[in-house]
Structures are given as structure tokens and as C-alpha cells.
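Late entry, zinc ion complex.
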Amino acid sequence: MNKKGPEWEAVTIINPRVNSNSNSKLKCLFCDYTFTGGATRLRAHLLQRTGLGVKICSGDIPQLLLSRVIEEDQRLIDEAKAKTKAIKLALIKNQRTLDQCSQNNLKANLDSQISKFMFTESVPFLKIESPYLKNFISLSCPAYHLPNRKTLATTHLDREYSSVKAAVENAKNTNRFRS
Ligand SMILES: [Zn+2]
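Prediction complete; structure with ligand written out below:
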């Protein structure tokens, strides 16, 4: 339940709103102006803000009430700004995660392809460090860095081996059930 702001002390409600999509009919205690609206239009009237379809107040609003309404207005503006900022930050963070994720996928895929080429064509591991291959990669895919000889011979070899082994096991099982 929203607590009503100080602006509501400046009006009497002639007709209360009937549902959440409607607005109350209000009458200003200081200038007798009547209008339909909620807190935003009410503050616009009191704070002499044009462009919201309400006349500005011509009455004498007590200074204390006026400064409380100004304070409330500023609080709501700050709150909206903070929310917008939080949403922007969350979006930026989310985009970064997505970029990182697709980059990681691409790197893993490229690593796997170069590994398959090296292993199946029996290319000596040392050749992965060939300056000509490095030049070729840096021209065709500048964001990608080739694995070094050691990583190729350990991490990538193990990974490809496991993947081939799993495929063989899978094929064996499929054949067993077929016969
Ligand atoms: Zn007024």
C-alpha cells in the first residue's frame, strides 16, 4: 500500500477513483481549482509545472507544505533516476556476459577444430607454433589465439580423446541393441 505524499494535504477529494485505471476528482484547497488526476498532476498544479494538462495554482500555498511537496517531488525524481540507472547497468552487464559467452563458445569451437586437424592429419604438435600459421590466424581471425604446443598435447588431446571415446562407446551400444 502506497503511503500518500504531502501533496494530498492540498486538496479535497470530490469523487474518489473507482478503480486503479481511473483518477479521483480533486479540488485545490488554496485556489478552488477542480481537476481529475493523481499525485503527478496534483504536484504539477502545486509546483506550477506546465505540460501535464492542469492549471497551475494561483492560491497561497503555505511555505511548509510547499517545501514538503518539493522534497517529495525530488525524492521521486531521484528514485526514478536510480531505477533507470540500475536497469541500464543490468543491461550492460547482461550484454557483456552474452558477448563473453559467445566468444568463449567460438574459442572452444576453434580450439577443437584445429586440434582435430592436428591429431587426425598426424601433424607434429610443434607445428602449432609455426609463425606462418600464427600469421594466417592473426589475419583471418585476429581475436583468436592458437593453443600452444603444451596445451595442445594435454588439455586438447585429452578432450578430443574423451569425445572420440564417447562416440565409439555410443556406437557400440547402439549396435548391441540393434542385433
Ligand atoms: Zn491550487
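The mean pLDDT is 90. Will revisit in the morning.
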